[in-house]
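ok here's Spermidine/putrescine import ATP-binding protein PotA, seq below lol
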Amino acid sequence: MTNVKINSVAKNYGQVSVLSDITTQFPEGSFTSLLGPSGSGKTTLLRIVAGFVTPDSGTVSIGSRNVTNVPVWARNIGMVFQSYALFPHMTVRENVAFGLARRGIKGAEARSQIDRALEMVRLPGFGDRKPKQLSGGQQQRVALARALVIQPSVLLLDEPLSALDRRLRQEMQVELKRIQRETGLTTVFVTHDQEEALALSDQVAILDRGQIVQMGVPTDIYEKPKTRFAAEFLGDTNFLTGTVSARIVTLSDGTAIRLADAEVAPSDGQSVTLAVRPEKIRIVEGVADAEPGLNRLQARVTAVIYAGAALTYVLTASDGTPFKIFAQNTTGTIIPEGAQVTLTWEPKHTILLQDQA
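and the structure came out like this:
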């Protein structure tokens, strides 16, 4: 197993800065997702690690080896592309063998490694088929087997599941996680799918405009976003703005919101932005008193989205702030549009963002 270190990497295309002074590392044996919108720089960073793109400055190391100027074929990386990039005129076995042939591995040794790779991706017996005879999920497994058969130091995945339908994508998520755990390969995965990143990763890096705005384990990234961008990019979020005084944030209508005990409160009088995830909030019809210690505000239901097992309430708070609440449909009772409601949540779910209001 091998780690990957990125040190002060920058890349420009003309006057456009694609990556700006990126320094990070992908630990040995970890599964790291690079998450961000189109144009955030995530694919460029992956391609720099692979060797397809040369950085304008900075270095890339795989293990103890500086590979910044080492060609792709000499880096011992396995890569799976969004388009699969299978050779349509070759059989599955021939596609998987391609990397081995380039390394001079043939005959019985090659056959053994190919069989092992196809077994790992659960495609034994498919070796004589052509890509057109396979489903999308099976083609993606062949592409993965081709990347794994060369026994790479690092596995790089460039949105490999985006072309699959939801069911196949979920199946392949399970398979990717299993294979990564079995092989112990340091894996870097590019995606724009937030749920996918949370489900698969040991750590997630959120990129925006060529910079990593936050990186950490999925639970920290989701539960403790540092900025408004990170909070709203990784799932639905409600935002509140107010003024701090003695660890209380007062909204424009006078509603008092308590900060979590773990939060380091800014100076009194400072305007701040808070975030609260929709699933953390409890909704009760009418004007109700909150349990001691809970945050509370009044709102009106403007829309209800019924999805069988779950409900989404769209609301407007008394200070005009838009809100969204997720609720499980445990009783079958739906609060109607136009109803006045009380929203409550624990202060520990109030996230103080680093962005100032």
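fwiw The mean pLDDT is 91. kinda neat tbh
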